[in-house]
Amino acid sequence: MVAPVIKLQSVTKVFLTDEVETHALADINLEIAKGDYVSIAGPSGCGKSTLLSILGLLDSATAGEYWLNGQQQRVAVARAVAGEPAMLLADEPTGNLDSKSGESVMDLLRELHQSGATICMVTHDPRYARHAERNIHLFDGRVVAQSLEMAAS
């Protein structure tokens, strides 16, 4: 078993306004290992982008635990500077693209993954989710299914 680069345990995210309390994520338990190619899918408003923001340290969880491998982070920064990212977080990388351009983006992600990069992509399009080796499905802020896929060639 490969040690996780990222591990989430019981992660919750709640957005508070004056009138509304929105539970974007609820009790997320997830591990992403070095070299994984993960797709996060689900309908609009289910928490995909919120989860990606937390994974990318752009936002923090309201509750729960987040572990990031610290040495791996330094290596990732060095590789990113050198043009060889160790991890790529992609939020709808094919959004607003025609199908030919979308496939070109997916080819690039596949090449990065084959060269050893960890890919974590948010998409609502099952055509692109199938490119990932593992699919995580969210609904109402919860992981409702995880599956291993035969990645598209």
Fill in the keyword field for this structure:
153 residues, five-stranded mixed β-sheet, 4 helices, Rossmann fold, three-stranded antiparallel β-sheet, alpha/beta, 27% helix, 39% strand, 8 strands
Question: What's the short version?
Answer:
This protein is an alpha/beta fold and 153 residues long. The chain has helices spanning 48-55, 70-82, 99-114, 126-129; strands at 4-16, 21-33, 37-41, 63-68, 87-91, 118-122, 134-139, 142-148. β5 (87-91), α3 (99-114) and β6 (118-122) form a beta-alpha-beta unit.
Summarize the helices and strands and which ones pair or pack.
Elements (H helix, E strand, L loop, with lengths): L3 E13 L4 E13 L3 E5 L6 H8 L7 E6 L1 H13 L4 E5 L7 H16 L3 E5 L3 H4 L4 E6 L2 E7 L5
Parallel strand pairs: 3-6, 3-7, 5-6
Antiparallel strand pairs: 1-2, 1-4, 7-8
What does this structure look like?
The protein is an alpha/beta fold and 153 residues long. It has a single domain (4-148), classed as P-loop containing nucleotide triphosphate hydrolases (Rossmann fold), CATH 3.40.50. The chain is 27% helix and 39% strand. The longest helix is centred in the C-terminal third of the chain and has 16 residues, at 99-114. The mean pLDDT is 86.
Shape summary: globular
CATH topology label: Rossmann fold
What proportion of the residues form beta strands (DSSP E)?
35-45%
Strand order of the largest sheet: 5-6-3-7-8
Low-confidence stretches: none
H-E string = EEEHEHEHEHEE
The CATH homologous superfamily: P-loop containing nucleotide triphosphate hydrolases
CATH second-level architecture: 3-Layer(aba) Sandwich
